[in-house]
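Appendix B. Chain record.
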Amino acid sequence: MEVFIYPPQKKYWNHIYTVEMDGSAYNKKYKSELFMITCLILERKKIMQRKKNVLLMILATVVAMLAMSVNVWAAQKNPLAQMSTKTSAVLYSAPAGMGCDYFTPEYTSKVKISVKSYNTKVVTVKGYTFERNGKYSAGYETTPIAPGNTKIKVKVTVGSKSYTRTCSYTVYKWENPLKTFKIGSKNYCSKLNKSGTVTVSEDSLNGRLVYKLKPDYTLVSMLCYTKTGDKYSAVKNIKSGKKLPQGTYGIFMQIKSRKNNKFYNVRLYTE
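Structure tokens predicted for this chain:
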């Protein structure tokens, strides 16, 4: 005689009746208490395993986020970590860009900076602090004064911690890297003997450009800045003997010395 066991309480039905057996849903009444208990145990194991997997995923995500935060903090721990300890400049070379020699990363707390040149007759230095969208940073700018060597000391304070770094600084004297520099019938080469920056009249940058470098120098790049109406543009690498583009108001040449690997930049522009 078969003995039927009452089905489990209703709150377990949804779990029991969806247990899969051989690929099909088993929806018949359970005929033994042992089978019913076994199904409950298996289903609860599945539920617990799913919960465990979810918890492991959450834990892994948290650990990854913490690791990223630590890495970012570590990368920015020393605001002077990327500052060069040895650099140089060429006196009177035309500037290739504007701004500071070095910027710190941005921080949520205010950043203080103090700078010192050990020989202000060679180079002077000035520190700046910046604030943008609630983030703070600092930087410094050097100005070459005369050929020679010196050291620059930079101290940055973020929160309650201070960091110091020293840079060896060399200033090279200006040398005219060009043997010939003519535009039309006008020769500008002698004007470059003292400085890489020369101002000319508005109608001067018009005609055929002829230039030749001295043996120890290599042309890296050349730009002709033009203006047509309200439109500004730049034409790259005009070859010697070619006519300057119409509307040229500036010429910039980046020339590298093979003697010291420094850039002796030349810039002509209209007043």
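Further analysis of this model is presented in Appendix C.
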